[in-house]
TrEMBL record:
It catalyses: 3-dehydro-L-erythronate + ATP = 3-dehydro-4-O-phospho-L-erythronate + ADP + H(+); 3-dehydro-D-erythronate + ATP = 3-dehydro-4-O-phospho-D-erythronate + ADP + H(+). It comes from Salipiger marinus. Belongs to the four-carbon acid sugar kinase family. It is an enzyme of class 2 (transferase). NCBIfam families: OxoTetrKin. This is 3-oxo-tetronate kinase.
Length: 420
């Protein structure tokens, strides 16, 4: 394994794996820290954690455990992947995890770059934009777990680490890889290991990636990975075989626990098309009134692609959270989706499209999938995936971040998972 990656959530890890696979690396995504060695043909391994919103100490401990495993696989470079909207609080977890990894790797020149231009996320003069809005005016200021109230990534990181943060501004970054490398070296001399680098386009990210050749630690959104495979390729280290992914013809079911605007638009499109759907209400899930086996049997009996969803509007989510507690509602719905996925697979489903990072993590854990092969891209940030089932056989999956995908994502995913 050449490049070892640590993702702080499940769908974000697929997003990164997708970028690396598109650049020609042979990639596998692991569910948590594996307990056995990686297949030696794998060139980039992504350890998907659920460390984005857990207490800081747990995020640091999980990330260091992932680092140990990746180093044992011989990785030459480590990439810490977080959200392109920099999801974190003034306490953490991005800064403390980056610092802990930097210390473990003796890395003193560590880029911080959440840019993902294909999804409208750009870093300019140290500030993060979502399309034409500053992060703190993009809707992210209302995020239920980590409201992003400051778009200045340097200031936010300083709060998390208690230390000054370096910066490579736009004008210097645009001079290309050599100028970026010089600016990073200067920041290191000034004693600021974390260095925010501006990036507005994919070509900026390629230049930045080129400048990161040989550095032990890189951090960012999936965009920061765009230029890294080229460094390994130039050194003749890539096999050029790419992905070994295959489609799956079995029944396709869509599961959504995501309440994001993009997912709700995709659900609206499914309903408008008159396709079968079952809505799960938070109250029913909390009261344990839903039988996963019955939902699975209903899904398998539909002639067209069925959807099972709990994707309420913000007001309804708030009401359910006030009545039952945020953690309790989330845990009940996630456990239910994990049980439905298990029942579906037992009933012979071959393709699952899952919307929502937490929901995807619950489904993958519920199915006991340990490693996922990365296939073709369905939408920016969302690849097709394939995994061996612990009971034998395989399943094809799409795991979609809440904010990703166009209105027809479910139909597009279903077709690509079948391999057509
Ligand atoms: N009706 C509801 N009321 C309260 N919570 C809900 C409801 N429906 C779903 N949830 C919970 O909301 C959370 C949605 O998180 P999830 O990460 O799956 O989606 P997302 O936030 O849209 O995606 P991402 O994290 O990829 O951006 C889950 O924990 C889910 O169980
Ligand atoms: O970076 C992103 O936006 C995604 O990969 C993600 O992490 C969303 O949860």
């Amino acid at each position: 394994m050449l490049l070892g990656c640590i993702g702080d959530d499940f769908t974000g890890s697929s997003d990164l794996a997708n970028t690396l696979a598109k650049q020609g690396m042979r990639v596998t995504q692991y569910s948590g820290v594996p307990d056995q060695p990686a297949d030696p043909v794998i060139e980039a391994g992504v350890v998907a954690l659920k460390s984005r919103s857990v207490p800081v100490e747990q995020a640091v401990a999980q990330s260091l455990a992932a680092l140990d495993w990746l180093r044992a696989q011989g990785c030459q470079q480590i990439l810490f992947k977080y959200c392109s909207t920099f999801d974190s609080t003034p306490q953490g977890n991005i800064g403390p995890v980056a610092m802990a990894l930097a210390e473990a790797l003796a890395a003193r020149r560590v880029v911080v770059c959440p840019a993902f231009p294909a999804a409208g996320r750009m870093v300019y003069q140290g500030h993060l934009f979502v399309h034409d809005r500053l992060l703190n005016e993009s809707g992210m200021e209302h995020h239920p777990l980590n409201p992003m109230t400051d778009a200045d990534i340097r200031r936010w990181l300083s709060l998390q680490t208690g230390a000054p943060v370096g910066h490579v501004p736009f004008a210097e970054m645009r001079q290309g890889a050599a100028a970026i490398a010089t600016a990073l070296a200067r920041a290191e001399e000034q004693g600021t290991p974390l260095i925010v680098v501006d990036a507005l386009s994919d070509s900026d990210l390629i230049e930045i990636g080129t400048a990161l050749d040989g550095l032990p630690l890189v951090t960012g959104g999936s965009g920061i990975a765009m230029g890294l495979p080229g460094n390994f390729r130039r050194r003749g280290l890539l096999s050029g075989q790419g992905s070994a992914w295959q489609g799956h013809a079995g029944r396709c079911v869509v599961l959504s626990g995501s309440c994001s605007a993009a997912t709700r638009g995709q659900i609206a499109r499914h309903l408008e098309a008159g396709l079968p759907a079952r809505e799960i209400r938070a109250e029913e899930a909390v009261a344990g009134r839903i039988d996963p086996a019955e939902i699975a049997a209903w899904s398998m009996a539909q002639e067209k692609r069925p959807l099972v969803f709990s994707s309420a509007a913000p007001d309804e989510v708030r009401r359910a959270q006030q009545a039952h507690g945020r953690e309790r509602v989330a845990a009940a719905i996630e456990a239910l989706f994990a049980a439905i996925a298990k029942a579906l697979v037992a009933a012979g489903a071959g393709r699952l499209v899952v919307a929502g990072g937490e929901t995807s993590g619950a489904v993958v854990e519920g199915l006991g999938l340990s490693a996922l092969d990365i296939g073709p891209e369905i939408a920016p940030g969302a690849p097709a995936l394939r995994a061996a089932l612990p009971q034998g056989g395989h399943i094809a999956l799409a795991l979609k971040s809440g904010n990703f995908g166009g209105p027809d994502f479910f139909a597009e995913a279903s077709a690509i998972l079948r391999g057509v």
